[in-house]
């Protein structure tokens, strides 16, 4: 995939979460990782790229095609993509299986049988075969996050957008979720990931976009970013994160 933003502005009230943010990836970046300090705009950028938020100004292009600004077009783009957030966002009153089937029947118009078949296949692949009839409260954090990934993958998304998917997890559960993401990358899933997991980002990213204060300070192949970042912001960030890990 190729991602591009041109002078994107996203405001919350008077505050500019993205302030004329521009970048362009290479043509075939399969895993784009958004890095940067907290509050820098990663999460907002991820939502804008996936069509969950429409910017007030500027344009967003996925594979050279501009994302629509009007509501109906934006919804169409949103439905092509899958999101996973930090806090799982599973429905607490539904089982893991029901959490995965519901969007397929309610949003994507699949039959109950087809949705169930797809959900069972995915949950099994993500190691949840024995847990699919449990509700979120009966699952560990790592299992809940894997169920959330299954739900996001169920409709075969064009882009899978992961917003700090491991930040609420302990190291063991983090490892489980990172293994799942690594497998998806190997299968060719196109991924946009906002994370603080630098060593993981280094292993899987093709391209890094570094954001701070709502602007893009660096957009380059991952190898270049980790070996020889250009901006002083990125250099300081890498030094600080490495020092405290
Ligand atoms: P990051 O993911 O890098 O931590 P975010 O995109 O979440 O950054 O946030 C960027 C800025 O926008 C932050 O200063 C944050 O407080 C602000 N922000 C994010 N979401 C909202 C919101 N819904 N309402 C008001 N301010 C927000």
From TrEMBL:
One Pfam family per UniProt: ABC_tran
Highest taxon in the source lineage: Bacteria
Gene Ontology MF: a single term: ATP hydrolysis activity
Domain ABC transporter as annotated: residue spans: 3-238
SUPFAM superfamilies attached to this UniProt entry: P-loop containing nucleoside triphosphate hydrolases (SSF52540)
Assigned keywords, A-Z: ATP-binding, Nucleotide-binding, Transport
Family membership noted in the UniProt record: Belongs to the ABC transporter superfamily.
Protein's name in the database: Amino acid ABC transporter ATP-binding protein (PAAT family)
UniProt organism field: Prosthecobacter fusiformis
């Amino acid at each position: 995939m190729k991602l591009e933003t041109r002078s994107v502005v996203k405001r919350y009230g008077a505050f500019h979460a993205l302030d004329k943010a521009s970048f362009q990836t290479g043509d075939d970046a399969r895993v784009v990782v958004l890095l940067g300090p907290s509050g820098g705009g990663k999460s907002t950028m991820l939502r804008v790229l996936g069509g969950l938020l429409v910017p007030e100004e500027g344009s967003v292009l996925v594979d050279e095609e501009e994302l629509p600004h009007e509501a109906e077009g934006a919804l169409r783009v949103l439905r092509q993509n899958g999101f996973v957030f930090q806090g799982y966002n599973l429905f607490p009153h539904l089982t893991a299986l029901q959490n995965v089937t519901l969007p397929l029947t309610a949003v994507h118009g699949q039959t109950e049988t087809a949705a169930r078949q797809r959900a069972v296949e995915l949950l099994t692949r993500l190691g949840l075969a024995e847990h699919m009839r449990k509700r979120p409260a009966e699952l560990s954090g790592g299992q809940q996050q894997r169920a959330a990934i299954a739900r996001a993958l169920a409709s075969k998304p064009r882009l899978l957008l992961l917003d700090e998917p491991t930040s609420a997890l302990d190291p063991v559960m983090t490892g489980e979720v990172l293994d799942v993401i690594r497998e998806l990358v190997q299968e060719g899933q196109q991924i946009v990931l906002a994370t603080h997991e630098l060593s993981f980002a280094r292993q899987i990213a093709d391209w890094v976009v570094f954001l701070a204060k709502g602007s893009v300070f660096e957009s380059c192949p991952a190898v270049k970013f980790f070996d020889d970042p250009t901006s002083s912001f990125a250099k300081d960030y890498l030094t600080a994160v490495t020092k405290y890990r």
